[in-house]
Protein backbone atom coordinates (compact mmCIF):
# COMPACT_ATOMS: atom_id res chain seq x y z
CA UNK A 1 0.00 0.00 0.00
CA UNK A 2 1.39 3.41 -0.97
CA UNK A 3 2.43 5.72 1.85
CA UNK A 4 -0.01 8.53 2.56
CA UNK A 5 1.38 12.08 2.23
CA UNK A 6 2.24 13.93 5.44
CA UNK A 7 -0.81 16.19 5.13
CA UNK A 8 -3.14 13.20 4.93
CA UNK A 9 -1.38 11.38 7.78
CA UNK A 10 -1.83 14.49 9.93
CA UNK A 11 -5.51 14.57 8.96
CA UNK A 12 -5.87 10.89 9.84
CA UNK A 13 -4.12 11.34 13.19
CA UNK A 14 -6.57 14.08 14.17
CA UNK A 15 -9.54 11.82 13.47
CA UNK A 16 -11.08 8.64 14.83
CA UNK A 17 -12.58 5.37 13.65
CA UNK A 18 -15.81 3.72 14.69
CA UNK A 19 -17.51 0.54 13.54
CA UNK A 20 -20.88 1.08 11.91
CA UNK A 21 -22.74 -1.80 10.27
CA UNK A 22 -19.55 -3.83 10.71
CA UNK A 23 -17.44 -1.34 8.74
CA UNK A 24 -14.65 0.97 9.86
CA UNK A 25 -15.72 4.57 9.33
CA UNK A 26 -13.25 7.44 9.61
CA UNK A 27 -14.57 10.67 11.09
CA UNK A 28 -13.52 13.90 12.72
CA UNK A 29 -15.55 15.54 15.48
CA UNK A 30 -14.31 19.07 16.08
CA UNK A 31 -15.30 21.70 18.62
CA UNK A 32 -17.48 21.70 21.75
CA UNK A 33 -19.37 18.48 22.44
CA UNK A 34 -22.95 19.62 22.17
CA UNK A 35 -26.05 17.95 20.77
CA UNK A 36 -26.25 20.38 17.84
CA UNK A 37 -23.64 20.08 15.10
CA UNK A 38 -22.64 21.13 11.61
CA UNK A 39 -22.40 18.04 9.39
CA UNK A 40 -20.48 18.23 6.11
CA UNK A 41 -20.97 15.56 3.43
CA UNK A 42 -18.35 15.01 0.73
CA UNK A 43 -18.64 13.98 -2.90
CA UNK A 44 -17.40 11.46 -5.47
CA UNK A 45 -14.69 10.26 -5.82
CA UNK A 46 -13.06 12.12 -2.98
CA UNK A 47 -13.42 12.27 0.80
CA UNK A 48 -13.97 14.43 3.86
CA UNK A 49 -10.46 15.78 3.27
CA UNK A 50 -12.09 18.03 0.66
CA UNK A 51 -13.14 20.20 3.61
CA UNK A 52 -9.74 20.38 5.31
CA UNK A 53 -8.96 23.98 4.30
CA UNK A 54 -12.44 25.22 5.23
CA UNK A 55 -12.67 23.66 8.69
CA UNK A 56 -10.19 25.97 10.48
CA UNK A 57 -12.10 28.97 9.12
CA UNK A 58 -15.49 27.97 10.54
CA UNK A 59 -14.69 29.08 14.10
CA UNK A 60 -14.12 27.24 17.36
CA UNK A 61 -17.63 27.74 18.74
CA UNK A 62 -19.28 25.13 16.50
CA UNK A 63 -19.31 21.37 16.69
CA UNK A 64 -18.31 20.22 13.21
CA UNK A 65 -18.47 16.63 12.00
CA UNK A 66 -16.98 15.26 8.80
CA UNK A 67 -16.55 11.63 7.79
CA UNK A 68 -15.70 9.42 4.85
CA UNK A 69 -18.54 7.51 3.21
CA UNK A 70 -18.11 3.76 2.78
CA UNK A 71 -15.76 3.21 -0.17
CA UNK A 72 -14.08 6.60 0.12
CA UNK A 73 -11.10 8.20 1.83
CA UNK A 74 -9.95 6.45 4.98
CA UNK A 75 -13.14 4.43 5.57
CA UNK A 76 -13.65 0.77 4.71
CA UNK A 77 -13.77 -0.14 1.02
CA UNK A 78 -15.33 -3.61 0.90
CA UNK A 79 -15.42 -5.52 -2.36
CA UNK A 80 -18.88 -6.99 -1.80
CA UNK A 81 -21.03 -3.97 -0.98
CA UNK A 82 -23.91 -2.20 -2.68
CA UNK A 83 -22.50 1.35 -2.35
CA UNK A 84 -26.09 2.56 -2.49
CA UNK A 85 -26.86 6.10 -1.39
CA UNK A 86 -29.53 4.59 0.87
CA UNK A 87 -26.83 2.74 2.80
CA UNK A 88 -24.65 5.84 2.89
CA UNK A 89 -27.60 7.68 4.45
CA UNK A 90 -27.91 4.85 6.97
CA UNK A 91 -24.25 5.43 7.89
CA UNK A 92 -25.03 9.11 8.51
CA UNK A 93 -27.81 8.18 10.90
CA UNK A 94 -25.68 5.58 12.69
CA UNK A 95 -22.74 7.97 13.06
CA UNK A 96 -24.86 10.74 14.54
CA UNK A 97 -26.48 8.27 16.90
CA UNK A 98 -23.01 7.04 17.93
CA UNK A 99 -21.90 10.63 18.55
CA UNK A 100 -25.17 11.48 20.34
CA UNK A 101 -26.00 14.31 17.95
CA UNK A 102 -29.67 15.23 17.83
CA UNK A 103 -29.79 18.26 15.51
CA UNK A 104 -27.63 19.28 12.56
CA UNK A 105 -27.08 22.02 10.08
CA UNK A 106 -26.43 19.97 6.96
CA UNK A 107 -23.90 21.03 4.30
CA UNK A 108 -23.36 18.82 1.27
CA UNK A 109 -21.25 18.76 -1.89
CA UNK A 110 -21.48 16.71 -5.11
CA UNK A 111 -22.63 13.12 -4.36
CA UNK A 112 -23.28 14.22 -0.79
CA UNK A 113 -26.12 16.45 -1.98
CA UNK A 114 -28.14 13.38 -2.95
CA UNK A 115 -27.40 11.66 0.35
CA UNK A 116 -28.79 14.88 1.83
CA UNK A 117 -31.88 14.48 -0.37
CA UNK A 118 -32.45 10.98 1.01
CA UNK A 119 -32.16 12.34 4.55
CA UNK A 120 -34.68 15.06 3.67
CA UNK A 121 -37.02 12.41 2.23
CA UNK A 122 -36.81 10.45 5.48
CA UNK A 123 -37.40 13.64 7.44
CA UNK A 124 -40.61 14.35 5.52
CA UNK A 125 -41.81 10.83 6.28
CA UNK A 126 -40.89 11.32 9.96
CA UNK A 127 -38.41 8.44 9.71
CA UNK A 128 -35.24 10.40 10.43
CA UNK A 129 -33.50 9.88 13.77
CA UNK A 130 -32.22 13.48 14.02
CA UNK A 131 -33.45 16.97 13.16
CA UNK A 132 -32.18 19.00 10.20
CA UNK A 133 -32.16 22.69 11.07
CA UNK A 134 -30.92 24.05 7.74
CA UNK A 135 -29.48 22.82 4.46
CA UNK A 136 -26.67 24.01 2.19
CA UNK A 137 -26.27 22.37 -1.23
CA UNK A 138 -23.08 22.97 -3.20
CA UNK A 139 -22.29 21.86 -6.74
CA UNK A 140 -24.16 18.59 -6.81
CA UNK A 141 -26.03 17.14 -9.78
CA UNK A 142 -29.29 16.74 -7.91
CA UNK A 143 -31.06 17.24 -11.23
CA UNK A 144 -29.05 14.55 -12.96
CA UNK A 145 -30.85 15.14 -16.27
CA UNK A 146 -29.06 18.50 -16.52
CA UNK A 147 -25.59 17.27 -15.53
CA UNK A 148 -22.70 17.12 -17.97
CA UNK A 149 -20.95 13.94 -16.83
CA UNK A 150 -17.18 13.71 -17.22
CA UNK A 151 -15.71 11.17 -19.68
CA UNK A 152 -14.48 9.09 -16.74
CA UNK A 153 -17.96 9.02 -15.16
CA UNK A 154 -19.45 7.92 -18.47
CA UNK A 155 -16.81 5.22 -18.91
CA UNK A 156 -17.34 3.92 -15.37
CA UNK A 157 -21.04 3.46 -16.18
CA UNK A 158 -20.32 1.55 -19.40
CA UNK A 159 -19.72 -2.20 -20.00
CA UNK A 160 -16.00 -1.37 -19.70
CA UNK A 161 -16.42 -0.08 -16.15
CA UNK A 162 -14.47 -2.80 -14.33
CA UNK A 163 -11.55 -2.52 -16.73
CA UNK A 164 -11.58 1.28 -16.49
CA UNK A 165 -11.47 1.11 -12.69
CA UNK A 166 -8.51 -1.28 -12.76
CA UNK A 167 -6.66 0.97 -15.22
CA UNK A 168 -7.27 4.18 -13.26
CA UNK A 169 -4.06 5.99 -12.42
CA UNK A 170 -2.81 9.04 -10.57
CA UNK A 171 -2.06 10.80 -13.86
CA UNK A 172 -5.55 10.19 -15.29
CA UNK A 173 -7.23 11.15 -12.03
CA UNK A 174 -5.38 14.44 -11.81
CA UNK A 175 -6.04 15.22 -15.48
CA UNK A 176 -9.79 14.65 -15.04
CA UNK A 177 -9.84 16.71 -11.86
CA UNK A 178 -8.11 19.67 -13.49
CA UNK A 179 -10.82 19.69 -16.17
CA UNK A 180 -13.54 20.47 -13.64
CA UNK A 181 -11.69 23.15 -11.68
CA UNK A 182 -12.06 26.78 -12.71
CA UNK A 183 -9.25 27.90 -10.42
CA UNK A 184 -6.09 25.77 -10.10
CA UNK A 185 -5.36 24.11 -6.77
CA UNK A 186 -1.87 23.19 -5.54
CA UNK A 187 -0.35 19.97 -6.85
CA UNK A 188 -0.07 18.78 -3.26
CA UNK A 189 -3.87 18.86 -2.99
CA UNK A 190 -4.30 16.71 -6.09
CA UNK A 191 -1.71 14.25 -4.80
CA UNK A 192 -3.49 14.06 -1.44
CA UNK A 193 -6.82 13.40 -3.14
CA UNK A 194 -5.34 10.59 -5.24
CA UNK A 195 -3.71 9.03 -2.17
CA UNK A 196 -7.08 8.95 -0.42
CA UNK A 197 -8.84 7.51 -3.46
CA UNK A 198 -6.23 4.77 -3.95
CA UNK A 199 -5.93 4.00 -0.22
CA UNK A 200 -6.97 0.38 0.38
CA UNK A 201 -7.29 -0.01 -3.42
CA UNK A 202 -10.26 2.32 -3.46
CA UNK A 203 -9.70 3.25 -7.11
CA UNK A 204 -10.56 -0.35 -7.97
CA UNK A 205 -14.01 0.25 -6.46
CA UNK A 206 -14.86 3.15 -8.77
CA UNK A 207 -17.09 1.04 -11.00
CA UNK A 208 -19.14 0.25 -7.86
CA UNK A 209 -19.12 3.62 -6.10
CA UNK A 210 -20.19 5.41 -9.29
CA UNK A 211 -23.55 3.61 -9.07
CA UNK A 212 -24.89 6.67 -7.23
CA UNK A 213 -25.38 8.31 -10.65
CA UNK A 214 -27.82 5.60 -11.73
CA UNK A 215 -29.63 5.94 -8.41
CA UNK A 216 -30.09 9.65 -9.07
CA UNK A 217 -32.11 8.72 -12.16
CA UNK A 218 -33.97 5.81 -10.55
CA UNK A 219 -35.02 7.59 -7.38
CA UNK A 220 -35.60 11.15 -8.57
CA UNK A 221 -39.29 10.59 -7.79
CA UNK A 222 -38.35 10.02 -4.13
CA UNK A 223 -35.65 12.64 -3.69
CA UNK A 224 -36.82 15.72 -5.61
CA UNK A 225 -40.43 16.32 -4.45
CA UNK A 226 -39.55 16.71 -0.73
CA UNK A 227 -37.20 19.57 -1.63
CA UNK A 228 -40.17 21.52 -3.00
CA UNK A 229 -41.89 21.27 0.38
CA UNK A 230 -38.99 22.31 2.61
CA UNK A 231 -39.67 24.95 5.26
CA UNK A 232 -36.15 25.17 6.75
CA UNK A 233 -33.51 27.69 5.55
CA UNK A 234 -31.77 26.49 2.38
CA UNK A 235 -28.74 27.96 0.64
CA UNK A 236 -27.71 26.96 -2.87
CA UNK A 237 -23.99 27.81 -2.98
CA UNK A 238 -22.55 27.21 -6.43
CA UNK A 239 -19.27 27.46 -8.27
CA UNK A 240 -20.71 29.08 -11.39
CA UNK A 241 -18.04 27.73 -13.76
CA UNK A 242 -18.69 24.08 -12.89
CA UNK A 243 -18.69 22.07 -16.14
CA UNK A 244 -20.36 19.02 -14.51
CA UNK A 245 -22.97 20.24 -12.02
CA UNK A 246 -23.76 23.13 -14.32
CA UNK A 247 -25.32 26.44 -13.30
CA UNK A 248 -28.71 25.37 -14.67
CA UNK A 249 -29.00 22.85 -11.81
CA UNK A 250 -28.53 25.57 -9.20
CA UNK A 251 -31.08 27.80 -10.92
CA UNK A 252 -33.65 25.01 -11.05
CA UNK A 253 -33.16 24.15 -7.38
CA UNK A 254 -33.50 27.80 -6.41
CA UNK A 255 -36.86 28.06 -8.19
CA UNK A 256 -38.18 24.77 -6.79
CA UNK A 257 -37.25 25.09 -3.11
CA UNK A 258 -39.53 27.69 -1.51
CA UNK A 259 -37.04 28.76 1.19
CA UNK A 260 -33.93 28.68 -0.99
CA UNK A 261 -31.48 31.48 -1.59
CA UNK A 262 -28.98 31.18 -4.42
CA UNK A 263 -25.45 32.49 -4.09
CA UNK A 264 -22.95 32.23 -6.92
CA UNK A 265 -19.21 31.81 -6.60
CA UNK A 266 -18.58 33.36 -10.03
CA UNK A 267 -15.00 32.31 -10.75
CA UNK A 268 -15.06 28.83 -9.21
CA UNK A 269 -15.72 25.37 -10.59
CA UNK A 270 -16.76 22.00 -9.19
CA UNK A 271 -14.68 22.08 -5.99
CA UNK A 272 -15.22 25.56 -4.49
CA UNK A 273 -13.98 24.45 -1.06
CA UNK A 274 -10.59 23.58 -2.56
CA UNK A 275 -10.43 26.35 -5.16
CA UNK A 276 -11.17 29.19 -2.72
CA UNK A 277 -11.69 27.95 0.85
CA UNK A 278 -11.78 31.48 2.28
CA UNK A 279 -14.66 32.55 0.04
CA UNK A 280 -16.57 29.36 0.82
CA UNK A 281 -15.98 29.64 4.57
CA UNK A 282 -17.11 33.27 4.58
CA UNK A 283 -20.46 32.32 3.05
CA UNK A 284 -20.84 29.27 5.29
CA UNK A 285 -20.19 31.29 8.43
CA UNK A 286 -22.91 33.77 7.49
CA UNK A 287 -25.34 30.93 6.79
CA UNK A 288 -24.49 29.10 10.01
CA UNK A 289 -24.74 32.19 12.23
From TrEMBL:
The Gene Ontology terms for molecular function here are: monoacylglycerol lipase activity
* CC annotations in GO: membrane
Q: Which residues form the AB hydrolase-1 domain?
A: 37-277
Q: What's a BP term from Gene Ontology annotated to this protein?
A: acylglycerol catabolic process
Kindly give the InterPro entries that the UniProt entry links to this protein. AB_hydrolase_1 (IPR000073), AB_hydrolase_fold (IPR029058), AB_hydrolase_sf (IPR050266), Epox_hydrolase-like (IPR000639)
Protein's UniProt name? Pimeloyl-ACP methyl ester carboxylesterase
Source organism (scientific name) = Agitococcus lubricus
Amino acid sequence: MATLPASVLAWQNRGHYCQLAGLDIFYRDIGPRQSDAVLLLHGFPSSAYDWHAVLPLLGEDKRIIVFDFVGFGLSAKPKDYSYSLFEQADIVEMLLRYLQVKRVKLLAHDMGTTVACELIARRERKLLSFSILSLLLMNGSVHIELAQLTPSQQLLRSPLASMAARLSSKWLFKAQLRRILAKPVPETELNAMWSLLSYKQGHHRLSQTVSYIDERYRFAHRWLPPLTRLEIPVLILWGQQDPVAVAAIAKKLATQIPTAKLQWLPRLGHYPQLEDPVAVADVMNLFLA
